[in-house]
């Protein structure tokens, strides 16, 4: 790709950017919270794209000047300095070109949404529950590095310090566009702390990443929802509440059901249960719509289904492998400290290339 290929499109986007600036200059827009948020987000994305495009063209122009200087320079020391500068500019231009390509991709309709993440142990008993807890804490550290807001909606722990299940929301910039690649089955291979014989065990944990839904997106009738209240209980069936504060909400037509007992307030538990239920229903709705499309029109990055094995964490080999993209990183401890960029940066580049190839095929 060269700047001339997209210069016309960038200019059209600059016109759009000026329109957004005009809209943000109108004080009336700040009374419309959702519209203001949408316009501000679009404006920030365009400003970032323009900065990268200008830096890219600047780097390419400087490279051309340096090559011209190099062709006429006879001093060996100066030639070495110019060559080093050209190498730095080439690396910078390549990185900016990749970032620009990602920015130019058609946005996913869910990219602007906040998300709800659910983590549950699958196969492996206590070891799966322990890894579910470790993965949860790794995501919290990643969220902190991204300056996202975290809200734990529901959490049930095991006696050994693992997690039976946890649901939490993430809100902030690019939440869905990064975390959507985490949805699926995560497999862990390691020697459990409880294993005396030193044998490697394989366990699995499921992660569901769901965009938060608005009621208007789902057209839910009040009569389609059934609410049941019950008494909250802790690990081992211990009563932690003497009132019926826990809430279970069921969407009768689909049979989807969500229970929440995290809070002492019945009203708060009802609110949490509805948020999770709406997210699950939106996920189901979008999956059904995707299933109606022809197979060759679907994204090539995997279905995102929570039954799909997407990644293996091999502790003896210090390796994390993502099976959808056939990529690995050999710094597992660092990744478990929240450095998911070690693997997400590679995923984003490959996903971008695949999406661009798909768009070219469809044209």
Structural description of this entry:
- The chain is an alpha+beta fold and 363 residues long.
- It has helices spanning 3-24, 33-71, 76-104, 125-145, 175-179, 215-218, 266-291, 332-335, 341-362; strands at 115-121, 149-157, 163-171, 184-190, 201-211, 225-230, 246-251, 256-260, 309-314, 319-322, 327-329.
- Strands 2-3-1-5-4-9-10-11 form an eight-stranded mixed beta sheet. A three-stranded antiparallel beta sheet has the order 6-7-8, with helices on one face.
- The longest helix has 39 residues, at 33-71.
- The protein starts with a helix and ends with a helix.
Layout of strands and helices, then pairs:
Blueprint: H1 3-24, H2 33-71, H3 76-104, E1 115-121, H4 125-145, E2 149-157, E3 163-171, H5 175-179, E4 184-190, E5 201-211, H6 215-218, E6 225-230, E7 246-251, E8 256-260, H7 266-291, E9 309-314, E10 319-322, E11 327-329, H8 332-335, H9 341-362
Helix pairs in contact: 1-2, 2-3
Keywords:
alpha+beta; eight-stranded mixed sheet; three-stranded antiparallel sheet; 9 helices; 20% strand
Helix content: 40-55%
Number of strands: 11
Estimated radius of gyration: 25 Å
Instruction: Identify the quaternary structure here.
Output: single chain
Annotation field: number of helices: 9
Percent of residues in beta strands: 15-25%
Largest sheet: 8 strands, mixed
Label the overall shape.
Answer: globular
- First-residue to last-residue Cα separation: 17 Å
Order of helices and strands: HHHEHEEHEEHEEEHEEEHH
């Amino acid at each position: 790709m060269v700047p001339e290929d997209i210069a016309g499109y960038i200019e059209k986007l600059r016109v759009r950017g000026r329109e957004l600036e005009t809209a943000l200059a109108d004080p009336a827009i700040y009374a419309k919270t959702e519209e203001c948020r949408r316009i501000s987000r679009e404006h920030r994305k365009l400003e970032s794209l323009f900065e990268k495009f200008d830096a890219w063209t600047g780097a390419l122009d400087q490279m051309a000047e340096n090559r011209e200087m190099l062709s006429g320079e006879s001093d060996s020391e100066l030639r070495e300095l110019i060559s080093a500068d050209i190498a730095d500019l080439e690396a910078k231009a390549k990185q900016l070109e990749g970032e620009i390509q990602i920015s130019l991709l058609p946005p996913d309709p869910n990219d602007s949404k906040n998300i709800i993440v659910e983590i549950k142990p699958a196969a492996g008993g206590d070891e799966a529950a322990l890894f579910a807890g470790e993965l949860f804490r790794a995501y919290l550290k990643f969220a902190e590095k991204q300056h996202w807001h975290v809200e734990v909606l529901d959490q049930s722990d095991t006696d050994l310090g693992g997690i039976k299940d946890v649901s939490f929301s993430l809100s902030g910039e690019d939440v869905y566009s990064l975390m959507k690649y985490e949805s699926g089955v995560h497999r862990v291979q390691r020697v459990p702390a409880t294993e005396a014989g030193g044998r490697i065990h394989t366990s699995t944990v499921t992660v569901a990443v769901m965009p938060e839904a608005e009621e208007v997106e789902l057209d839910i009738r009040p009569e389609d929802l059934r609410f049941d209240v019950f008494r909250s209980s802790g690990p081992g069936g211990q009563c932690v509440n003497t009132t019926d504060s826990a809430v279970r909400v069921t969407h009768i037509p689909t049979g989807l059901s969500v229970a929440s007992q995290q809070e002492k307030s019945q009203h708060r538990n009802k609110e949490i249960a509805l948020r999770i239920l709406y997210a699950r229903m939106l996920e189901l709705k979008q999956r059904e719509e995707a299933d109606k499309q022809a197979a060759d029109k679907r994204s090539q990055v995997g279905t995102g289904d929570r039954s799909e094995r997407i990644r293996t964490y091999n502790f003896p080999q210090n390796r994390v492998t993502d099976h959808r993209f056939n990529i690995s990183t050999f710094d597992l401890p660092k990744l478990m400290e929240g450095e998911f960029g070690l693997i997400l940066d590679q995923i984003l580049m490959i996903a971008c290339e695949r999406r661009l190839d798909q768009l070219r095929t469809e044209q």
